[in-house]
Design a protein that fits this description.
The protein is α+β, with helices and mostly antiparallel strands and 146 residues long. The termini are far apart. This is Iron-sulfur binding protein.
Length: 146
């Protein structure tokens, strides 16, 4: 018992005079490693709407909403809270329009809203959100409500 106590006291005294091993994050930041898998990035101008990314996503984190396939008007709804960052969607994309960012990886939030990200042209996203708002407003009362 005495031997263990002596070892512990020795460790405590030595640690008082050592520099801390932790860094003062977020004030001191290290760059992300090469090929780091952060937030999904989508380039809509390259997308052909084949939906392989949606089919191959094991977490169902990607939705591709087709507004007009002939004119290549798509909106991608990305659920970052579901994503497991496996990069299967990036590998599956034939048109190289998906990538995982090595710059956007600090994704913590206190609410769920920031985790649903819409990608596409601003006017297409605005059109989709207006349509969703109209559809939700036009619904009657849900079960159990009057």
């Amino acid at each position: 018992m005495r031997k263990r106590l002596g070892t512990m006291v020795g460790d405590v005294v030595r640690s008082v005079f050592k520099k801390p091993a932790t860094q003062l994050y977020p004030f001191e930041r290290k760059p992300a490693p090469v090929a780091f898998r952060g937030k999904l990035v989508w380039e809509p101008e390259k997308c052909a709407g084949c939906m392989l990314c949606v089919k191959d996503c094991p977490a169902n984190a990607i939705e591709l909403i087709v507004l007009d396939k002939v004119n290549k008007r798509f909106v991608m709804r990305y659920h970052a809270d579901r994503c497991i960052y496996c990069a299967q969607c990036v590998v599956s994309c034939r048109f190289k329009c998906l990538d995982l960012s090595d710059e956007e990886w600090e994704l913590a939030s206190t609410g769920k809203e920031p985790f649903t990200v819409y990608y596409g042209k601003e006017e297409d996203i605005a059109f989709l959100l207006e349509k969703m708002a109209r559809d939700n407003a036009g619904e009657g009362p849900s079960c159990g409500e009057e």
